Amino acid sequence: MQNFKKKTAEAIENAVLSLSDSAGLTAADIESFLEYPPDPAMGDLAFPCFRLSKALRNAPPKIAAALAESLKDFSLGLVEAVGGYLNFKVSPDYLSNRVLGEIEEKGASYGSSDIGRGKVVTLDYSSPNICKPFHIGHLGTTVIGHSLKLLHEFAGYTCIGINHLGDWGTQFGKQIVAFRKWGDRETVEKIGIDELVRLYVKFHEEAEKDPALEDEARAEFHKLEEGDPDNLALWQWFVEVSLAEYKKTYRQLGIEFDHYTGESFYIRGGLGDKVIGELREKNLLKLDNGAYIVDLSDYNMPPCIIVKTDGSTIYHTRDIAAALYRKKTYDFDKSIYVTSSQQSLHFAQLFKVIELMGYPWHDRLVHVPYGTVSVDGAKLATRTGNVVLLKDLFRLSVEKVTEVMNEKNPDLENREEVAEAVGVGAIVFNYLYNSRIKDINFTLDQALSFEGSTGPYAQYTYARTCSILEKAGSVPSEGGSMTHASEAELLKTLSLFPEKVSEAIAAYEPSVITRYVIDVCTAFNHFYRDCPIVTADTEDAKTFRLRLTNAAKTVLGSALRLICMKTPEKI
Ligand code: ARG
Q1: Which residue's CA is the nearest one to ligand 1's atom 9?
Q2: Which among 64, 219, 317, 384 could bridge 49 via Cys, Cβ 3.0 to 4.6 Å?
Q3: What is d(CA 212, CA 174) in angstroms, rounded to the nearest whole number?
């Protein structure tokens, strides 16, 4: 409806100018005041005329009546004055020619734009801590982050996806000690991260009894920092073992990163020391009980610790280094960080320190927080206690999908691939359906339902569009005419896609797209219920319906892919 909105706003402006010397509002103002009426019977767009009361010195109902009269030849649809509102109904001709034509012409790029052309956006997301498996808490940063990347790319931005691995810190001293004392290579190679976790947990149990282990761990980390080759090799191997496992999950989700520049990258590259030097030079560093901090009490925040009492740098130091590095390397227009809302204070402090350092681009740093996820259902509890591992969740989901598929479509080709796309997609879709900041309680049954607002339902609807088109053989590229209200409703829904993309980007909110996917599915399934397609009464109706089915496939496919969903053609 973006174009319809624009054209309507221009027509209103001209109509106002025919009544008065000055409209008081520009077409762009008018466009921003246009509303979608909650009741479609009221029309497709409404303009609240009180916005013009001042300029026209008249009561809204009078203005509405005068404007309706002056707009009676509006070529894109019907105009009606109802009380203080001017209601517009888009014409069937506009929908079947302009909207459908635009989708057909643009195909997979329909909904995209070039507003980001020439601008770089860095996105820091997923960023797990090495030697720790992915659990359900990582789902948010991973899929919200990737979806935001895809959305920005769709809007023409050059995007850099960065995995800021938690790969440095005193915990690696503990991991080294534990591995040398109780671990062996073969087991780690065979079992992977779970074995590293077991060793880490054992370290803590043993250290309770024998506190000297803590000193040993500190000494090993110190050696690592000093570049001891054995410790470095061991650490490097922990990183590799962990990454190999993360990459399996990324592959299932269809995610790739441009850079795996973790915390160690900044410290080992000497950037941590540079940050400390620069903060000192700028008089921002304060000695506080043996630690170096940046005092943020003027801004009602706790101090930002830069160097701990034991002389080591911390999470904040590396994030300051990373922000400076990214600005210098990528010259970003926006730098996005996606983490749980528990880190909101961390980022508020970080952005404040960048500001105090005198960098004007501090306002280009964006933290995108999300709520916490709790998990319901005994099925999801695992051997590691109440932590739900992402790989277990995906496996259960794929198993359930496979069962249903065996029953409903036993002859399906590529069954494993499809079961994975649907099983993993179900979890992703269920998660991204919620506005990101909401705390959610996750249940497997709900995520795996094939009914209602779910991933399987959306992917199944997409597959339905594919199978209709396949049955028809070929899709006509023009002709046919619109004969049913459900066709018009579907086209109206499809016409909203570009606006939904802008809205999702403006609010950093993939759920706008997830919900829109359901709107498209609902509109398509109503159309499918009401209108025979391949068996339509006339060739004319069939032609139009095939074109419409193809347009729905285009939009649904693009929208699904923007929220990290795969789109199998057969399910
Ligand atoms: N590794 C961190 C964690 O698991 C997330 C890192 C987020 N990115 C950042 N630049 N701080 O909590």
Answers
A1: 164
A2: 64
A3: 12
Average pLDDT over residues 435-457: 85
In three state form, how does the secondary structure of 508-561 look?
CCCHHHHHHHHHHHHHHHHHHHHCCCCCCCCHHHHHHHHHHHHHHHHHHHHHHH
Strand, coil or helix: 309: coil
pTM higher than 0.90: yes
Helix (H) or strand (E) holding 162: strand 158-162
Known catalytic residue at 138: yes
The ligand 1 atom at the shortest distance from the C-alpha of residue 166 is 1
Instruction: Answer whether 103's CB lies under 8 Å from 491's CB.
Output: no
On whether the CB atoms of residues 552 and 528 are closer than 8 A, the answer is: no
Active-site residue (options: 5, 135, 174, 500): 135
Of 562, 555, 557, nearest in space to 496 by CA: 555
Q: Dihedral angle at the C-alpha atoms of 70, 72, 76, 79, nearest 10 degrees?
A: 90
- For ligand 1, which residues put their CB under 6 angstroms from it? 124, 127-129, 164, 166, 319, 322, 337, 339
Please give the average per-residue pLDDT across 496-500, as a whole number.
Answer: 96
How many degrees, rounded to 5, is the angle at CA 298 between CA 295 and CA 302?
50
Q: Once rounded to an integer, what is the mean pLDDT over residues 362-382? A: 78
Report CA-CA distances (Å) from 72 to 65, 266, 462: 11, 65, 40
Distance between CA atoms of residues 17 and 253, nearest Å: 53
Beta bridge partners of 373: 440
pLDDT tens by residue, 216-268 = 999 999 999 899 999 999 999 999 999 999 999 999 999 999 999 999 999 98
Helix (H, G, I), strand (E, B) or coil at 286: strand
Residue of minimum CA distance from atom 8 in ligand 1: 164
134-177 tens-digit pLDDT: 988 899 999 999 999 999 999 999 999 999 999 999 899 999 99
